[in-house]
Predict the structure of Putative transcriptional regulator.
Amino acid sequence: MGNSKLYKGSLNTIILKLLEKNDKMYGYEITQRVKELTKGELEITEGALYPALHKLESEGLLDVEVVKVDNRMRKYYKLTQKGTTETANRLAELEAFIRNMEHLVNPKWSID
């Protein structure tokens, strides 16, 4: 995908937003949900996802719950209270960034 570099900088925010909406998710579920929401435009690899999840966990933004499913251990990720607050902050920053980019890409010129 041509714009994958643009998404890469937003991966942590994407993960936090998904967890805010879905309470708890496991890694593969996150990758599939992103693929579904972007109609296949964005595919998150395990090589990108798991380091991001581990970083968010080490920052105290995620809790991990290990559950046995079909004789396998599955890690579910969930926002901590700090993660919930940080999600709101990062989303606000991302929205401001998107607004500023929109003004730069599609300026509304006036003669004022």
In short: The beta strands are 24-26, 62-69, 72-79. The chain has one domain: 4-105.
